[in-house]
Structures are given as C-alpha cells and as structure tokens.
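@channel sequence for tomorrow's demo:
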Amino acid sequence: MTPPPTLTPYRSQLQPARDGFGHLLRAEWTKFWTVRTWPAGLVLAAVATVLISLLGAGGGTDDSNGDPGLTLGPDGTRVNDTFRFVHRKLTGGGSVTVRVSDLKGRDGVVDAEPWAKAGVLVKQGTEPGSPYAALMVTPDHGVRFQWNFTHDEAGSTAPGDARWLRLTRAGTRLTGYESADGSHWTKVGSVTLAGLPRTAEAGLFVASPLHSTLRRSFGGTSETAGTTAVTAHFDQVALRADGDAKDTSWTSTDVGAAGPDSPDNPQSGPARREPGSTTVSPAGVYTVTGAGDIAPDETGGDIVQMSFQGVFVGVLFMVALGALFITSEYKRNLIRTTFTASPRRVRVLTAKALVTGGITFAVGLAATAVTFPLAQSAMRSHGFKPPAYPDLSLFDGPALRAVVGSAALLALVAVLALAVGATLRSSAGAITAVVVLVILPQILAFALPLPVAHWLLRVTPAAAFAIQQGVTYYPQVDHNCLPESGCYPLDPWNGLAVLCAYVVVALALAAWRLRRRDA
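structure tokens (generated this afternoon):
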C-alpha cells in the first residue's frame, strides 16, 4: 500500500504581529463608529466648543484704544514708559558713566519696590515707546541690562551701597558694564538697536512701578495699585561724546507722565503720579526722584486664551466618550469577546487609546481651528483690536500653539478617561475621577488662596489649560498670576506635559490591571 503523501503545513508570509495589530486597529475604529451615540457626542462636543467660545468672546468689551496713556514699544507691544530722565544729547559714539547709591522709597522711609530702577540710559528720544538700552541697579534683583522693554539680562547680584555703571555706544551698538570700584569693569550685556539715530538722548534715570495689593477670599478677589517713588544718588557723573556736543547742559524730563494740571492725570487717590525732582549739590551729586516704569504692560486681556473658553465644556464630552469606549464593553460583557479575539490585552488597550486619541484630536483640531478666527472677529467688534491688541491670524505663533494644544488637551483627556475606565471598569467612577482631576482644580483655583491655587494648577492635569495662554509674562515685571484672568503658574508646554504624565501613568496602571484581572 502506498503511504499517503506528506502535506507541508501552510505558513503565511505576512508579519503576524503587524497584521494582527492593524486588524485590531480597524476593529476598534469600526467599533467606535458603529455605536451612533459616540459620533453624535463628538459632533455635540465640537458644536459646544465653538458656540460657547463665541459667547465668551462676545461677553466683554475693552476701551484701551481710547486711553491717552496707551504706549506701544518698537515691536508693537503694549508697554509702560514713564520715568524721571536727566539727559543731554549724545552724538555719534561715546559713553555715560556714573556711580549709583542709596535707593530709597518715598520720602526716604519706605523700602523701595523690588523692581525700582536707577541707572544710565541711552534712548532715541523722550517720546514714550521709543527704542532704548539701559543699565540699572535694582533693590532686589541686582544689576540689570534691559532694552526695548521686553529684553532683560542679569548682571551681578552682590549687595553693596554703591555700584558703578557705564553704558557705551558705538554706532547702533550699546554695551553695559558694571564695577564695584570704578577701576575693574565687567561686561553685563550688549545689543544693537536698529534705527538708533546719530544723535540720541543719554543720561541718568529713576523709575518705580506701581505697588499692587491683592485681597482674595471665597467671596472674590480685589486688586488695588498705587503709585510709588524712588530716590537715588548719582555721583562721578561723566558723559563722553565722540561727535559734536554743542549743548552740554543737562535737562530733567518726566518721560510719559501727564502734567499735574492735565485732565489725564487723576486729581487725587493712589493712582495720581507726582512730578519727579532733580537736585544737584555743590559737589556734583545728583539726587533724582521719580515714579513710573520702563517695562511691558501686562494689564491687557489675553485675547488668545479668551478665544477658547468653550474647550472647558468640550472636555466634559471627551471624558464621557473616552470612558464609555471601554466601560460599555465591560457593562455588556463584550470585553470577553474582544479579549478572545485578541488575547494580548495590552495591545487591545493600545489600539483603543490610539483610536480614541486620534479621533478626538482630529475633531478637536477642527473645532478649535474654526473657533479661533470667529472668536477673534467677535472680540475685535468689542474693542479688542489694534493698536492696543495685535491682529492675530490662525498661524501666528501663540494662536497656532493654542489651537493645536487645545486639540491635544481634548485628546489626552479622552485617553486619560479611557485608561481610568479600564482600571475601574465603571463608567460613573471613571467619569467622576477624571472630572475631579481635570475640572475641579480649575473651579477651586478661583476661590482658594493664591499659593494653594497655584499648587493645584501645577500638580493636577488642569495645568494643561496653560497651553491656551497667549500672553508672555516677563520676569522683570511683578504681577499677580490670577487663574480667573487666564494666568497659569506653568509655561504652556510644561502645563501640557503634566497632563501627558498623568496619561502615561494611567495607561501603565490600566495595562497592569488588565494583565492581572479576569475580563
């Protein structure tokens, strides 16, 4: 009898793992769109995000463009440019050198503000907002080299009663030096000021910013500000000019300040700015007193963050979608079928996370991309327009970051809810847990003491809303970072990174639980 022929077993030439995971992704993708309530929820999330953002954008007005004190810096940024300036012409190259001492607050009794300034300055002219470079001494922040309002470079922080400062000019290049004894000099910084004319104003200056008082309770927040003044002594004053210097007399000017009889100057109260003063002793010591500040103005609204108020509501929809995408299978025992078809449970979780994150990111990106230009148009019609506010397009840096970042926030929250749902296996429990983590800190931050509010917005996933910030907060300006004003203690990308960390930990915990528990 002839033995039957030996059959060679069939071996597929495909890569099993890759092919299997691709099928798994398609299965989860199909599963998502099969349940009609989930696509409907996505549509509702997008519509709610757009409509509520538009309502929020149209809910306020701004009259900054009618403010006679509105000042713009060389790059169009809103700035404060008010200070006491003792100056003379500097033609061509040269330098101004001085020793600064005895910074005192008002009447020489009150401590000076931490960012009060006294030093040497070269400026295009006395017009507020014109380009400048300055080297200064501050009470709490040491020696600083600053230029064009938004730029700041630190020098020494060593304490001392007096500091020598020198600011040199070579064409449009300005360089600052400091010294403890007037003999040994250290370079602090250097900058090229484009368009600086051949003849500029150079000399001594003092400035002292407003003093802010914050009162915060569960009933609300109040912030008041009052003017301050600083007095400084300048000796060993020397101005060397390479060009023609016919006028060698010094002039004192309160740059940017309304006169005492001007209707723009309050007649009384903490906002009234008193004129500065300059006295010169027989020994050539200048005693200069003045108020104001040379710095960015951070009192305006954040028109980028104000465009995305509906994202807060969109998050609620994404939390529900993310949680239900897995907990509904546990509720109907369909998860057993899923794990039977794909026994490698971590791969199932990965596929669900990719599908959930991808779909919610795409829908969120479409919603925020539509929201931003519509919200900007609504705000411009209510006064948030140039020159006080920039005319932003969708592709400007802060706006594009907020659009893409808000979509990423929505997607990450959905994946976080999915991971929590896989761990708890309860729709209500997962939704509640994620809402408490993401939404509740935002609400509590409006009422809690500011240090506690900042702590919450640093360590919880709510930190991710910082991605919507469009205002730059400069370190050389003291400000109260209020959550209700859209300010967050972390930088935009660092805030989003906190949420990413929570998602990674939640997914790792979910994977561990899936491996150890029966379906």
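heads up for whoever presents: The radius of gyration is 31 Å.
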